[in-house]
Hints:
Layout (H helix, E strand, L loop, with lengths): L2 H4 L2 E2 L2 E2 L2 E8 L7 H10 L6 E8 L2 H9 L6 E3 L10 H11 L4 E4 L2 H10 L4 E5 L6 H11 L7 E5 L2 H9 L7 E3 L13 H10 L7 E7 L9 H18 L4 E6 L6 H10 L6 E3 L6 H4 L5 E4 L5 H10 L3 E4 L2 H7 L9 E2 L5 H12 L1 H18 L2 H16 L1
Parallel strand pairs: 3-4, 3-6, 4-5, 6-7, 7-8, 8-9, 10-11, 10-13, 11-12, 13-14, 14-15
Antiparallel strand pairs: 1-2
Protein name: Glycosyltransferase subfamily 4-like N-terminal domain-containing protein
Amino acid sequence: xxxxxxxxxxxxxxxxxxxxxxxxxxxxxxxxxxxxxxxxxxxxxxxxxxxxxxxxxxxxxxxxxxxxxxxxxxxxxxxxxxxxxxxxxxxxxxxxxxxxxxxxxxxxxxxxxxxxxxxxxxxxxxxxxxxxxxxxxxxxxxxxxxxxxxxxxxxxxxxxxxxxxxxxxxxxxxxxxxxxxxxxxxxxxxxxxxxxxxxxxxxxxxxxxxxxxxxxxxxxxxxxxxxxxxxxxxxxxxxxxxxxxxxxxxxxxxxxxxxxxxxxxxxxxxxxxxxxxxxxxxxxxxxxxxxxxxxxxxxxxxxxxxxxxxxxxxxxxxxxxxxxxxxxxxxxxxxxxxxxxxxxxxxxxxxxxxxxxxxxxxxxxxxxxxxxxxxxxxxxxxxxxxxxxx
Length: 390
């Protein structure tokens, strides 16, 4: 690139840069928490004009609009595939003209972007490890000449190390951690009250636990639902009166139907309540009494739960554990993936001891302020973009 029009850095400020974000339904950003993440990063780099192209169903467009991303164009392609969407991506690149950066959230999209905008810098957002032919292609691409102008973005050190073991150069993998904006959390009392009514959780003898996951279909509900049922029985026995817990689950959660059957067998009727907001924590957190975060890719849900200041338990998979390791005392939040006793015991304590519940919420808030600030996230992202074009 040459000439004043194409000059990328003037007085250490990015100017005249066009950036296209290509988001695939189910990709690294193509789900509610991912779209909220993208919204938080739009406008982080001064002088960059950003456009959003969605590959997927109308539902993805509606989710995009619901989080506040306006003006996105949608391509309906089979399977939201980058290969199938190549010609649409090429058309959009030509319409915009002079694209300097293409951000995409899927290896197939990176392949398409590399063909449609060969001279543009690339960002690839990943929250799942590529496998098979996708891994082979990505490894070859990132170790080649064009890999000099591409950066893979992940949410934590654990995944960067996982990619390095798969042959992706660690120096070309950057970390942009999860973040949450406290101002986005719904706090309207009328709305929250309606949610409690919907969940059958009105009154002092009701305790609501939100089971949050970025991608519910990767998270197992069985252990947490059994922990909730056990806690419900213990609290009722200790109080000597009927007492009910509600565990909010997503229709897409793994083994949800089996979890319902198990709890019905143990007499925990009505324990599990279906709630789509469990993948959009900002919508329901304020109406919950406690939160459990599950799923190895659920860093964004973890950030929202922390920023809400609700008492929280976190499934101890390597990625989530790695994020929390930086804060003293955060280990208290973690339970092993096969440990039924800790979550049931902790939920029982929170249900009966207001002081313990409040202290746990204060710990969550402290972790959130330490790890998941939006301004810090935007600054890191800005540095990656400037590094690409500088």
